[in-house]
Amino acid sequence: MSEPLFLKPVFHNKIWGGRKLETAFDYNIPDGKIGECWAISGHPHGRSEVENGEFAGQYVDDLWKNHKELFGDPKGEVFPLLTKILDAEASLSVQVHPDNEYAEKHEHELGKTECWYIIDAEPGSYLIYGHNARNKQELDQMIESGDWDDLLRKVPVKTGDFFYVPSGTVHALNKGIIALETQQSSDTTYRLYDYDRVEKSTGKKRELHIKQSEDTITVPHHDPKLDIVTREDGKNKFTTFVQPPISPYFAVYRWQLKETAIFTHQIGAYTLISVIDGNGSINVDGNDYKLEKGIHLIVPATVSKWTIVGDLDIIASESGEK
């Protein structure tokens, strides 16, 4: 029987995290400052476990290796995508991620291109997104002198915004933001600046990665040109935020549903779904499965068509890699 794969989230304590994943999504999170919900993941630092059906108790990375038919018989060695929800009670470090070539050589994993859908942003919230250095020499000089105010671009942000963050982009979520992140399956982050914060466990400032950052930052910075398209069908709205060729690794969609909608896979063999608000159900092969805020699932390649009913706000994604 073909069925969706519902997944159990994995939570990570972060110096910048808070408790909103508990209050906003009703997750049973551990004690402490919980900054990240790894919602759909085959990465070894946070593996998603299937909660239902034939594959209950198995992990996404194991299914990728042993049940290729669920993903359309892909060629890649690792499940290529990672979906997170981030709670930035404090600002994240100013950081950059490497591309595939640099990451494979130095970190032995994928590079990290990512994007954010802003689930909630407090008034006055902003991102660090890009930099103002005109060339590599100016970039290195501004980093060395700590001229962060002139170097870093601050961009206002509000609920419902979308940002595409290719590898090589200087960036940071700042305090007061909850975001859903779709990214390549990588956990490599190079910290450029961290506000001189000290880890309580060590009493020392967090490690910076200046050389790696300088190696991988794109100079000069250019904002990606996105072609965001929204289509209405009755009371439903379907938005495509990004897709190949602009984003070679993934397509990301928002589905704002008020009435029944029928879906098929678009650019990929399987589809990742995260419910960010509302209630409803997904019907596959005549069987209904409950959907509610905070649920995450994969619709595998063995499902060719499915129906969603309810009042729901969903972020969905597909791999752009064949």
UniProtKB/TrEMBL annotation:
Catalysed reaction, written as an equation: D-mannose 6-phosphate = D-fructose 6-phosphate
InterPro entries: Carb_Metab_Reg_Kinase/Isom (IPR051804), Man6P_Isoase-1 (IPR001250), Man6P_isomerase_Firm_short (IPR014628), MPI_cupin_dom (IPR049071), PMI_typeI_cat (IPR046457), RmlC-like_jellyroll (IPR014710), RmlC_Cupin_sf (IPR011051)
Entries under CDD domains matching the protein: cupin_PMI_type_I_N_bac
Mannose-6-phosphate isomerase cupin domain: residues covered: 245-317
Ranges where the Phosphomannose isomerase type I catalytic domain occurs: 6-106
Enzyme class, first EC level, given as a word: isomerase
GO molecular function, one term: mannose-6-phosphate isomerase activity
SUPFAM superfamilies, alphabetized: RmlC-like cupins
Entry superkingdom: Bacteria
PANTHER family, A to Z: FRUCTOKINASE, TRANSCRIPTIONAL REPRESSOR MPRA
Record-stated family: Belongs to the mannose-6-phosphate isomerase type 1 family.
Name recorded for this polypeptide: Mannose-6-phosphate isomerase
Organism: Companilactobacillus mishanensis
